[in-house]
Amino acid sequence: VRLVVTLGLAQRLGLSLGLGLRPRLGSGLSSGSGLGLGSRGLGLGLGLGSGRRLCAAGEAEVEAPSVPRGFTPWPFAYHEEVEVTVEAVTNLGWGIARVSLDAAVLAAKDSAEEVQDPQLKKRRRRRYKPRKGGSGEREEASVMNALEGLGGDNAAEGGWVVQVPYAVPGETVVARIFKNRKSYSEADLVSVVKPSPGRVEPKCGLFGVCGGCQYQHMSLELQRESKRKQVEELLLHIAKVELPEGVRVEYPVCTDEGYFYRSKLTPHYNPPRAKVGEEGEDGRVRVLGAIGFQKRGSRSLVDVPECPIATKGINEALPEIRANAESDAYEKFLGDAKVKGATLLLRDTPKHGVVTDHSRIVSETVRGVTLKFRAGDFFQNNPFVLPLMIEHVIAEARKPLPSGAAPEFFLDAYCGGGLFALQAAKDFKIVIGVDISPGSIQSAQLNAELNGLDNAYFTEADSTEIFKQVRGADEHIENDFHPSRSIVVIDPPRKGCDEAFLDQLIAYGPARVVYVSCDASTQARDAKYLLAKAPYAISRVMPVDLFPQTRHIESVITFDRVEAEGFGL
Questions:
Q1: Share of residues in the chain with pLDDT > 70 (%)
Q2: Are 400 and 429 in contact (CB under 8 A)?
Q3: What pLDDT, on the 0 to 100 scale, is given for residue 402?
Q4: pLDDT at 308
Q5: Which among 210, 213, 254, 518 is annotated as catalytic?
Q6: SS3 letters across 494-549
Q7: From CA 73, how far away is CA 8, in angstroms rounded?
Q8: In a 3-state reduction of DSSP, which class is residue 205?
Q9: Comparison of pLDDT for 249 and 283, the residue scoring more
Q10: Contact, 355 vs 345, CB < 8 A?
Q11: For the chain, which terminal residue's Cβ has fewer other Cβ atoms within 10 angstroms, N or C?
Q12: Contact (CB, 8 A) for 538 and 244
């Protein structure tokens, strides 16, 4: 019989079984239930199935960690270490593992709840409820989505879930528990016991601290396959969308550029809490703290002197821009002026180099179309993949209709600066774009003139207004946008489309809808709604990897109308 000492049940129940002395953890693994006795204390260890609780090796004394107030002590003790095998990655970039809880651990749940202070339990329940749309709700949803794809969503249906960052599917890792939620636990990665062949060395020294990247430890091939699976799971297992025979979620559109691709960077700095700082190399007081991005799991900033996913031009310009920000703050410091926080801009453009003025007009030429816009405005930040994504969207829009005829009219809802509409103008009789942003519409109109596109029209309005225009509300458009000859491209913000827009889209009944999304979860939700309410079928699902090394993925879904005639006119 192997005797080990764990904090196990004692800490889970909030009890002290150490005979008044500091516990010492014995060596080895506890993979079954039993009693452990060390030279300085007594503890109960309850083991797991596929995951195992670990005990520190050696004779050195180990101080019990200070348990945060409000910590739920079931099913794991605070900072308890478990060895788990990672099965999948959530759409937020966390590894998912499941461990079997034996009967003793499951039975201890009620005891753990009984010994908790009633007021503390009440506060914890109130604190746990995730804010609608907040990070807690997104984390919980991402875990449930991943489990849905694996099958089972609780301990009774495949094991208790442990969520651990920077782990690769198929790996065996040691994870240290820091939070037990209602249906899963969160942990930090301690070590990798059995690495995946797809694990690689991150190129950024801040990876794991900076919250900007989640996948630098994974090969590009593994990143993209994981992202493909995320889109697939959201569609098939969460939205319960059935793909027609022969249709599958394809391997993402991508290029070989995994680093030095991002053409826009926006580091932040906060106002100093006091006019005191460390002295720099020049001997003067440093006024600003970190200039960079949010730390993982925190609102505080981590200092980022260089960023390997940003272009080389941005990295070359970054030291001077950071120094200038510090100098400006120092001048205000000397003048006793208030130093405010700010967001810096570095926009790398082919013609203008690295631009830092938000209002300066810059230009990009994509597939033969020149686009001018303010440097601080939204514009896709991967110039390597962007042309390929546009090419896919336009190719899907202009392919022959089921009748064999070519589509004539192109409607671009949420058009922004007119990226898709301007690219489609040469392939369609008329294109119309609508966006709620006046600045974006002004840019789209100017770019239509710049490129000599006299068949492109843009209007500042809510996305639903586009359907009024195709019914003759715009006196400048004389053509009848019959839905059987019309294509609608949708590129909404992360929250997706609202039902009012989708209802009007359904009532108009275009021959084809091409839905471009930066959030596959809201896209899957909208796809489910559209397929349930109107006679459409998905003909293609194409992810686009615009942001290597991060969890973010674009997705393009093509919906073809399965009836020849439109309805709702």
A1: 75
A2: no
A3: 80
A4: 98
A5: 518
A6: CCCCCHHHHHHHHHHCCCEEEEEECCHHHHHHHHHHHHHHCCEEEEEEEEECCCCC
A7: 10
A8: coil
A9: 249
A10: yes
A11: N
A12: yes
Phi, psi of 373 (to 5 degrees): -160, 165
Confidence of residue 492 (pLDDT cuts 50, 70, 90): very high
Q: Which of 250, 554, 563, 565 is catalytic?
A: 554
Q: Which residue has the higher pLDDT, 135 or 67?
A: 67
Q: Which distant-in-sequence residues (6+ apart) come within 8 Å of 169 by Cβ?
A: 86, 87, 88, 89, 95, 196, 226
Dihedrals phi, psi of 11, to nearest 5 degrees: -75, -35
**Do 31 and 47 touch, CB atoms closer than 8 A?**
yes
Residue count of the chain, please give it: 569
Tell me which of 101-105, 353-357, 389-393, 544-548 is least confident. Answer: 101-105
**Which tokens go with 462?**
């809510």
Per the CB < 8 A criterion, the answer to whether 318 and 306 are in contact is: yes
Bridge partners, 434 (sequence order) = 413, 459
Instruction: Annotate 390-421 with three-state secondary structure.
Output: HHHHHHHHHCCCCCCCCCCEEEEECCCCCHHH
How large is the average pLDDT for residues 272-300? 76
pLDDT for the residue 52: 54
The model's pTM is: 0.81
pLDDT class for 285, splitting at 50, 70, 90? confident
Pairing relationship of beta strands 52-54 and 29-30 according to DSSP bridges: antiparallel
List CB contacts of 190: < 8 A, sequence separation 6 or more: 81, 173, 174, 175, 176
DSSP 71: -
Place of tokens 């199935």: 49
Does residue 518 have an active-site annotation? yes
Nearest CA-CA partner of 254 in 225, 214, 295? 225
Tell me, yes or no, if 554 is annotated catalytic. yes
Spatial contact of 550 and 224, defined as CB atoms under 8 Å apart: no
The pLDDT of residue 80? 95
**Closest CA relative to residue 71, chosen from 22, 11, 130:** 11
CB 104 within 8 A of CB 44: no
279 burial class (0-12, 13-18, 19+ CB within 10 angstroms)?
A: exposed
Region of 404 please: left (phi>0), alpha (psi -120 to 50) or beta.
left
Predicted confidence band at 564 (pLDDT cuts at 50, 70, 90)?
A: very low
Neighbours of 214 (CB within 10 A): 22
Which of 167-171, 276-280, 363-367, 491-495 shows the lowest per-residue confidence on average (mean pLDDT)?
A: 276-280
Whole-number mean pLDDT of the chain?
A: 81
Among the listed residues 211, 343, 323, 341, the one whose alpha carbon sits nearest the alpha carbon of residue 267: 343
Question: Do residues 239 and 524 make contact, with C-beta atoms less than 8 angstroms apart?
Answer: yes
